[in-house]
Structure formats: structure tokens, C-alpha cells
Amino acid sequence: MDQDHQKLTVMELKKIADHIEDTREEYRDLLLQVKKLISDIEDKTIPNDEQVQKKLSNTYEQMKEYALFVESIESFLRSSARNLKTKRES
Predict the structure, then answer these.
(1) Cα dist from 61 to 22, 56, 73, 79, 82, whole Å
(2) Quick check: is 3 in a domain?
(3) What is the pLDDT of residues 69-83, one digit of tens each?
(4) Which of 2, 24, 78, 80 places its Cα 20 to 30 Å from the Cα of 14?
(5) Any idea what the Cα angle at residue 31 is, between residues 29 and 37, rounded to 5°?
(6) What is the pLDDT of residues 40-65, one digit of tens each?
(7) 58 falls within a domain
(8) How many structural domains does the chain have?
(9) What angle (nearest 5°) sits at the alpha carbon of residue 18, between those of residues 7 and 58?
């Protein structure tokens, strides 16, 4: 494969970062829904089932970690795009 075909363009990196950002926003909304559900269980708004609460809490923590991971990928891609753009303009 030609070396030019292997390089990501600034536009491609920005497109990927935008897609990740959209996904992260959807994921953040889901995190808030799970957090509300956990809160409702703790406040006894819905019947308390200790196992369900524990599973939801664990799921929430895993989702939060994943969201931070995705955010770091997005930041890396945006930074890479800026660096490529700066290098090409030089």
C-alpha cells in the first residue's frame, strides 16, 4: 500500500473525533440515566433490591471509566489533527 494512503488526513482525524464526541455525549446521557436509577433505588422511590443496586453501581462505574477512556481518545485525535495541520502549514 502506498505511504500516502496510509496517512490519516486532518479532515479524517477531525471526522473520527467528532464521531467519538457524539458517541461520548450519548454515553454521558446514559450514565445520567443509570445514576438516576441508582439514586431512586437508594431513595426507595423504587423497591430496593440489594443485588440490583450493586450491579447498577458497578455498571455505572464501568461506564464512567469507559467514558473517560473515550474522552482521552478524542483528545488525542484532536491533538493529532492540530499537529498535522500545523506541520502542513509550516
Answers:
(1) 20, 9, 19, 27, 32
(2) no
(3) 888 888 888 888 888
(4) 2
(5) 105
(6) 777 877 666 787 778 788 888 888 88
(7) yes
(8) 1
(9) 110
